[in-house]
Amino acid sequence: MKIFNTLTRSKEEFVPLNPSKIKMYVCGPTVYNFFHVGNARTFIIFDTVRRYFEYRGYEVEFIQNFTDIDDKMIKKANEDNTTVKEVGDKYIAEYYQDADGLNIERATCNPRATEFIDDIIEFVSGLIEKGFAYEVNGDVYFRTKKFEGYGKLIKQNLEDLQAGARINVDERKEDPMDFAIWKAQKPGEPAWESPWGPGRPGWHIECSCMAKKLLGETIDIHAGGMDLAFPHHENEIAQSEALTGKPFAKYWMHSAYLNVNNQKMSKSLNNFLTARDALKAYDGDVIRFLMLSAHYRVQLNFSTELLDSAKASVERLYNAIDNLENLINEVTTEKMTKEEVKYLEKLNAYKERYIEKMDDDFNTADAITVLFDLVRDYNTNITIDSSKELCEKALELIRSLGAPLGMLQKQTKKESLEDEIERLIEQRQEARKNRDFALADKIRDDLKARGIVLIDTPQGVRWKKEN
Q1: Which of 33, 172, 213, 282 could form a disulfide with 136 if both were Cys (CB 3.0 to 4.6 A apart)?
Q2: What's the whole-model pTM score?
Q3: Strand locations in 207-269, DSSP E?
């Protein structure tokens, strides 16, 4: 298996620290709002990486943090006239709802930064003792010039970084590139007692500390969006390796940017889209399909047209599953013939191709192509004359290849009329609640056209069939 390592800018053979267990840390969201579709791409990609490792037989200790104390959190709490903790609690719950909708597996652990304050203080103290950090009026800064490897992740030296950076002049710093690892309390901010007075951790130190505490001084994989490579991940490396004297992570993985309608996502361009918004219009399988239809290191566009195309593609795959399930119930022959045994061996070649593609730096785009080739083969060669055993084996194969991608696991059992009506009534109620009366009226009119009349009562919505 090969992984493109951002640290070396090359594909490397993946050799875990432990032959059977992988330690993986992925930077999670700052929980002050719903996460957007750019975040969703990163979360889906590294959920897929984790799933594929498990498919290949590894045990994965997968940590994805919640940043629940930082400037954005404080600003949001002030705007909403609430506490930072309440903001964090709310949006962590919202994260799980949207992650579940995208079929993102729960991490082994989702640590909150505020749960590790004592460990962070110990970490900062260690850096001060080693001469890598210094305190000024309650703030603690990291000495970037003292860490010889600073800039190695993004392949720039300190002088070039300093020349290209937008740095606020702060005369308290020894050097403009030094960064805060502990921040003194400002009026109205939450704070914790420390040797340097009341304050809170800097953003970068949080991930370094949680990774070290939960996974150890050296981990297999550290991952996140490309936007985090500098300064966040570069600073993590500097802090962690300065403290321990050991490599922080063997492999660094970064997902490419996501555009919306061929433009960088921005509120000013009115193309800022949350995962919650996308999930209102499209199924999680469809969104995952689009996110995985390009290699994770390739920039991807996100648009209604591409989502509609992804929806049609997912439906083709589910139609194949539906056909196999129907055949299992309809065919009359139980056991495979000799010819079918040979055919099944041929089908297993698709599995080998799939593994070959995924082993090559998680090439999900080519892996999806293999799935469609497999479906084309099914549609041609598996018929009502096939055996039940072959149909079951074929169904098992396509679902097993979909699983690492987080797709094709839903049941295709047809929804009953009663369940469909109740679901549409619920959608109509939600639309009315959101004052989307056009959608509410459309649902009512569509049901009426099918002979279903909705009756609004003080006890709720009832329905009946027209005579």
Answers
A1: 172
A2: 0.86
A3: 219-225, 249-255, 258-260, 263-264
> Are 190 and 69 within 8 A, CB to CB?
yes
Q: Is 44 helix (H, G, I), strand (E, B) or coil?
A: helix
In the sheet that 59-64 helps form, which strands lie side by side, from edge to edge?
Answer: 59-64, 21-26, 219-225, 249-255
Task: Tell me the pLDDT tens digit for each residue of 217-240.
Answer: 999 999 999 999 999 999 999 999
User: 351: annotated binding-site residue?
Assistant: no
Query: With bands split at pLDDT 50, 70 and 90, how would you rate the model's confidence at 435?
Result: confident
Look-up: residue for tokens 């597996």?
A: 105
CB 66 within 8 A of CB 88: yes
Mean local confidence (pLDDT), 169-175 = 82
Mean pLDDT of the chain: 93
Q: Tell me the HSE value of 170 on the side-chain side, using a 13 A CA sphere.
A: 16
Question: Where does residue 250 fall: left (phi above 0), alpha (psi -120 to 50 degrees), or beta otherwise?
Answer: alpha
Which residue type is seen at 369?
Answer: T
207 in a known ligand binding site: yes
86 labeled binding residue? no
H helix and E strand count, the chain:
15, 15
pLDDT digits (tens, 9 = 90+) for 135-148: 999 999 999 999 99
Beta bridge partners of 5: 10
- Please tell me the distance from the alpha carbon of residue 292 to that of residue 308, in angstroms, as a whole number: 15
DSSP strand E in 14-151: where? 21-26, 59-64, 133-136, 139-142
Residue bearing tokens 């992570």: 249
**Token pair listed for 86:** 């309440």
Known binding residue 267? Answer is: yes
Q: Write out pLDDT tens, residues 84-99.
A: 999 999 999 999 999 9
Q: What is the pLDDT of residues 269-324, one digit of tens each?
A: 777 899 999 999 999 999 999 999 999 999 999 999 999 999 999 999 999 999 99
Q: State whether residue 40 is helix, strand or coil.
A: helix
